[in-house]
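Input (structure):
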């Protein structure tokens, strides 16, 4: 098995290498479970039965946005980044 490397972003995000995404047939919106095995090793599980049923899964999430709150992308990003400065 190949050893593949990714980088953790400032927000704690990682990208799953394309080779692995293709092998596991991962699609956007699918959930992964993480289990810490040792101090420096984690196991990641994908259970297809827990996957959200497509765009319908976003309905509950989208309801929390107010359609009258039409701010620019720059305004949204500025608000999101406010908590990042030390």
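Output (sequence):
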């Amino acid at each position: 098995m190949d050893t593949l490397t990714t980088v953790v972003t400032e927000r704690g995000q990682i990208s799953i290498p394309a080779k692995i995404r293709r092998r596991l047939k991962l699609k956007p919106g699918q959930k992964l479970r993480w289990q810490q095995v040792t101090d420096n090793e984690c196991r990641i599980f994908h259970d297809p039965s827990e996957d959200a049923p497509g765009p319908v899964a976003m309905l509950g999430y989208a309801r929390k946005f107010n359609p009258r709150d039409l701010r620019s992308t720059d305004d949204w990003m500025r608000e999101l980044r406010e908590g990042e400065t030390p």
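Notes: The chain has three helices and two strands. The chain has a mean pLDDT of 79.
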